[in-house]
Amino acid sequence: MNQSRQYNVGVLGATGTVGQRFIALLAEHPFFTLHALGASARSAGKPYAKAVAWKQTRPIPAAARELVVHECDPEHFKDCAVVFSGLDADVAGEIEQRFRLAELAVFSNAKNYRRDPLVPLIVPLVNTAHFAVLPQQQRLHDPPLSKGFIVTNANCSTTAVVIPLAALERAFGPIESCMVTTLQAISGAGYPGVPSLDIIDNVVPYIAGEEEKIEWETLKILGGLAEGDDGRTAFDMHAGTPLRVSASCTRVPVVEGHTECVAVRFARRPPPSPQQVREALQAYTSEAYAIGCPSAPRHTVFVHEEPDRPQPRLDRDYQAGAGVSVGRVRQCRVLDVKFVVLANNVAIGAATSSIINAEYAVLKGIVGA
Amino acid sequence: MNQSRQYNVGVLGATGTVGQRFIALLAEHPFFTLHALGASARSAGKPYAKAVAWKQTRPIPAAARELVVHECDPEHFKDCAVVFSGLDADVAGEIEQRFRLAELAVFSNAKNYRRDPLVPLIVPLVNTAHFAVLPQQQRLHDPPLSKGFIVTNANCSTTAVVIPLAALERAFGPIESCMVTTLQAISGAGYPGVPSLDIIDNVVPYIAGEEEKIEWETLKILGGLAEGDDGRTAFDMHAGTPLRVSASCTRVPVVEGHTECVAVRFARRPPPSPQQVREALQAYTSEAYAIGCPSAPRHTVFVHEEPDRPQPRLDRDYQAGAGVSVGRVRQCRVLDVKFVVLANNVAIGAATSSIINAEYAVLKGIVGA
Amino acid sequence: MNQSRQYNVGVLGATGTVGQRFIALLAEHPFFTLHALGASARSAGKPYAKAVAWKQTRPIPAAARELVVHECDPEHFKDCAVVFSGLDADVAGEIEQRFRLAELAVFSNAKNYRRDPLVPLIVPLVNTAHFAVLPQQQRLHDPPLSKGFIVTNANCSTTAVVIPLAALERAFGPIESCMVTTLQAISGAGYPGVPSLDIIDNVVPYIAGEEEKIEWETLKILGGLAEGDDGRTAFDMHAGTPLRVSASCTRVPVVEGHTECVAVRFARRPPPSPQQVREALQAYTSEAYAIGCPSAPRHTVFVHEEPDRPQPRLDRDYQAGAGVSVGRVRQCRVLDVKFVVLANNVAIGAATSSIINAEYAVLKGIVGA
Amino acid sequence: MNQSRQYNVGVLGATGTVGQRFIALLAEHPFFTLHALGASARSAGKPYAKAVAWKQTRPIPAAARELVVHECDPEHFKDCAVVFSGLDADVAGEIEQRFRLAELAVFSNAKNYRRDPLVPLIVPLVNTAHFAVLPQQQRLHDPPLSKGFIVTNANCSTTAVVIPLAALERAFGPIESCMVTTLQAISGAGYPGVPSLDIIDNVVPYIAGEEEKIEWETLKILGGLAEGDDGRTAFDMHAGTPLRVSASCTRVPVVEGHTECVAVRFARRPPPSPQQVREALQAYTSEAYAIGCPSAPRHTVFVHEEPDRPQPRLDRDYQAGAGVSVGRVRQCRVLDVKFVVLANNVAIGAATSSIINAEYAVLKGIVGA
Predict the structure, then answer these.
(1) Per the domain annotation, does C1 fall within a domain?
(2) Does the predicted model carry a pTM greater than 0.95?
C-alpha cells in the first residue's frame, strides 16, 4: 500500500521518556507530521526545547524544538488524526478517556486500558487481527463514538516474548506452557526511574507488577476473538488450548534492550526440533510489514547462529529496534525448546509499537480522513 | 567438635583468582596454617607479594606476603596435611593426579575430576555423605593409596542451586524437574576473564559449558550412593526419581554474586505451598555446621521476606558469603514453586566450599595426623 | 588516652544514607551507645527496622533494629551526650540550631553551618585545632550556651584533598595553588540520588555546588585562627599565603570512593621532589590517632607504589575507609607535583569524620559528663 | 571541491577494533571503495565475515562480508590509492614501512611513526598545514619515493584536547600552560582490552604511556614548521611560546567517548573571558570541512550551554562522532579558563581522523591518480 497523504499527530506525555521516543521517531516519519504536544501544566506554554529534559542520544528534532507544549486537553489536538500517549499510568486513564470521548484515535503505550474488555491490546507484529473489535468499542461506548477509540500496545517485556511465541504458534500450533526469565534494561522504568545505587554492580530480581503483566497480557495477545451469546465479541484469552505462562522478572545494569530466556512446551507431540523452530522464527512475517507499514521491520525475528547472541548492546539497534533478535535455540530438558530473545524496550517494546499500530490503522482506513 | 591442632596447608594455583581467595581465607583460619604455595614456573622462586597481581579488596595477608612460591611439585608440599587446588582446568588434571599419587589430600575447585566415577563432588552444605567413597577411591587407585585422594567441589552456578534443592528434597521428598536461569557475575570467569567491552551495558546470554555443568553436577550431588553387583559404590545420579534439570546461563555486569531464578516441580502431589517452602529453606541445616566446621555458615539458606531481595551487591557478603540467600518464594504457573537464589560465586561457590570440605575431613578424621 | 565510660548518642536523619552509615558504625563503637534515632514524621513511632529502607551491605545492627524512631525534637535526645546529624540540607539548618539551643553537642555532616564564622569545619585528620573556637561559639550565642555547640565536617570531595594537602603543608610549608579534578562516586549523592539512566556507561561532568565547596572549604580547613581587633577569633582562610584552589567535579559510575587527581604548587622554591612528597605523605600522622580516637586510622595517608593505584573498588575499604590512599606521585609540568588521592566518601568523607570528631571531643573533655 | 572519482582503499589490521571502525565507515563512503583487507596470517584466506569477531553495533557491511582477508603484504594492495592502518603497535612499524616503500599512501592510526621527524602527525581539524612536509619525507627516504608516504593521526586522548586548544590559539594567540585530566572510555584500549574485573564499579587512574603522548603530541600538532639551516623543514614543537602540558589519565567504565577536564593559561594578558572562549570555540572551523572533506563535521567544536554537558553517552554520536563537544567553560582560579571536552575516541579519536586526512589528501591532489 502506498501512502502519500500526511496526517497530523499529537503526543501526550511529550516530555517523558516514552514521549521523547515518540518525538524522535515521528520527526522522521514518512506520513505522520508532529502537530501537537501535550504534557503537564508545568510544561504548558513553553516551547518543547525549553520544557523537556531531553535524554536521547540524538539532538531534539528541529520539527519539535519550537512546538509549544499544551496541557493534555483535546481542544489542542482536534486537528490530529492520531494521538499517541506516553502518559504515566497515574494520569493516563482519565486523559485518554477524555481524548477518546472527543472522537480522537488514541494509540496508547500506557497500561491503563490493556485489560479493558473493549480495548484491543495489539503488538503490531503479532495480532493486528484484534483491530476488528474497534467498531464494538465505539458502539458500546456511552455515548457511542464514530471516530474515537483507544488502542493499547503491550508492556515492553511482554512484547519481547509474544513475538517469537506467535511465530511458533503459527508454525506448530498452540503452545501449552511458557517459562520466561527476563533481564530488563533500566530504561524500562522511565526517568528518573531506577536509582543508580540500586543497580550498578547489582541485579534487582523484582519489578513490581511485571510478572503479572507478562502472564496475563500474553494470553490476551495470543488468544483469539470469540463471539458471545450476547452477540458481543470477546478476547478468548487463548482458551482453546489453555496456556500457562510463568514469568520471573529481573532488572540488570543495561541501558536499553530486554533480554529474556524463554522455554516453551507445545501441545503438538512430538514437538518441533530446535532447527525447525529456528526456521519458523526466521520465516515469520507480520501483516504490518506485508501491507507496508513503514516502521515495521523486514525481519520480525532475526535468528542468530553465533552461540553468544543476541546481546543488548550489540543487537538492540538492529532495524532501529523494530524487530526482535533470537538466539540459542536448543532443546529444553523440562519443556520442549528454549531460546533467548532480545527486544529493544523503548522501540518495539514501546513507542515503535504504538506507531506501527497507527500506521496499520491508517493504511487499513481505520483512522479516517 | 573442638579442634586445637594446627594443620599445614598448601595452595596450588596460588596467584590466580581462586588461589587468591584461598589465601585470603586461610590466612585467618583457626586451624589451617598457610605453608606452601604453588604456581607456574614464571612465579616460582619469588615471594608471593612479588609473584601475584593481587586483586582482592583486602591487602595481601602478612602470612602470605613473604612465602616463596614454588612450582606445583609435591615435594614442596610434603609437610601439608591438605592441599587446595585453584588450578586452571588445562593443568589441574595432571597436577592434581601427581599430588594424589604423592599421598596428599587434594581439595580441588577445578572441574577436571568432577565427573570421575571414583571422585566425590561435594557441596559441603549438601552432600558430605559422599565422603564415604574415598576409601574406594584409594583402594582402586593404581597403585592403591593410603592417604592421598581428590575431593572436588561444584561449579559456582551449580552450588547456588543445589543448596536450596537439597533443603527442599529433605523436607518434601524428591524433585522431578528444575528450571534455572542464571545471572552470573564476571568474577566467575577469573582474571582477565570477561573483557569489559563485552559486558558493560550488556548481557552475554551464554557461558561455554556452564549449562551442561549445572544439568549434570546437580544429579551427582543430589543423588545417592548405590552398591553395584561388583561390590563397588557408585553415584546413582538421582536415579530413584529421575530429575530433569534445564539451565540457561547468562553473564551480567556484576562483580560478585550469582543470582539464579529457579522453578521446581516436586514428585509429591499436592506440592508444598510457598510458605512451607520458605520454612523448609530457612530451617535447613548442614552437617558441616553441626559438627563445627568453622567456615560453615549458621544459616545455610537465609530467606528474605522483602519482595526485592536477594540482590548481589547487598547480600553477597552476608556470613562471609558462605551461605546462600533466597527470596521471592512464590507459586509457579508451570512447575510448582519458583524462587530466586543468590550465592557468592567466589566464596561458597568456590574457595569456601573447598575449605569447608577440608574442615569436615579434618574433624571427621578423614585427613589424618 | 583510655576511655571506659559509655556515652549515649543520637542520630538525626537516621533513615537516610548518611544516617545508615552512622548507625552501622556506632553499633560497634567502643564507647558510644546508640540511644536515640530521629527522622521525619513519616518514620516516627516505628521501630528502626520498619522505618528504614536499609541499603548497606551488612544487615541492620541488632542494637538499632528495635529502637523506635522519633521526630527530630531535642526532648527525645536529652540523654544523649552527642548527637550526630546526617540530615538533608533543607532541614538541617533549623533542626541543628534547635538541638544546639537545647544544650546538645551536635556533630553534623550537613553543609548548612560549614560557612558559619562561629562554627568550626573540622576534618579530624587535619584541623582538630579548630575545636578551640567552640567556647566562643557558646559565648556569642544568644542566649549563651554552656554545653551546646555545632561542629561540622567537610564535604566528601573536600575531605579527600585536604588530607594530603595538610600533610604537605606540614612538611614543606604553604601551598600556593592546587588544581583538582574529581571522579566522584554515586553514593555521594545519597538515595535515590543519581538516576541510573544518567550514569551507566556515562560520566556527568558537573555536580551542583561541589566545586565551590572544595574551593572554599579547603581554605577554611587549612587556614589558621586569627585574633581580631574585637578580641574575637576568626578563621583566617589561609590568608598568610593566599591559596588558590581550582576544582573540576565529575560523577562516574562507581558505587563508593571518590578518586581525585590533584596538582599543587608550593610557595617554597625549589619545591620538594616527588620522592620527598611520598615520604611526607606516608609519614603524616593525625592528632586524633595520637590521642587514641578509636575510629582514626593508623595510616592517615597510605601511599601506593604500584603505578595503577589507588582504585576505588580495591582500596576504599582499607582501614574501614577511615584514611585516604595516594598514588602516582610525580612531577607536574605546570605546577610542581601531582598525584591521585582516593577517599571513601561515605566513611572518612562523611560519617567517620563526624564520629572521629566526637571521639576527639570526648577524649579532650570538650563533651562533658 | 567536488569529487566524483572513486578510489580503492585498503585496511590493515582489518579484524581489530580500529580496523572494524575503518570498515564500518568506509563501506558508506562517497568516494572511497573498500578493496583490500589485511590482517594476520591467522585470518588470511578467509572471507572477512569469517575472520572477524565483529563487535560493532551495526552488522558487518555487505561490501566487506565476502572480501577475502590477506596478509599485510603490499602486493595485495597495489591497486589501492590509499591504505589505512589500524595495526597494533607491535607490528605497525615494520609493515607500514614496507607499504610506504612500495609507494603506497599510508594513513596510520598507530603510534609508531608519530614521533618520526619526517612524518606529520595530523589531526585533520587542526593542522592539515603539516601535509606540507610530505615531499621532504619522500625526498629524504632511502630510496627516494615518488608516491609512498606515511601520515599519522594522533592518540585519541590527544585529539580531544588539541582541537579546542587550536581553536583558542587561533582566536587568542598562544597558550602557555595546559592541564588536562582525562576520563577515558574502555574502547580506547581495544579488544579484549580492559578486563571487566578492573573497571566495573571502578576507576583505574593510570594508562601506560598515555600522559606522555598527550604532553608530547600536543606540541607537535599545535606547533609550526621551521626551516632549518640545513634547508630541512622541522616541526618546531610550539617553540615560539613554550607550551607546558600536564596530563593525568584515568580509565572509567564508559564504553565510548573520552571526557577531559582542561584548564589553560594564555600568553596574552588579560586573558579572554569565558564568554569569549565559548564564542571562539563555537566559531572555529576546519580547513578540512571548508574544502569539502565529506567526513569532516560542520561543527568542529559544539559548545553546550547546559551546565551538565557534554556527557559521553548522550553526545558521543553527534555528527557521527567527527567533532568534539565542549561545555562548562568557566574561569579557573589557578590558570585562566577551564572547560570539559568530549571526543568520540573511536571516531574523531581514531578511524575518522585517518579518513578525513585521506579525504584531504585526495581533494588536495596529494594522493595521486
Answers:
(1) no
(2) yes
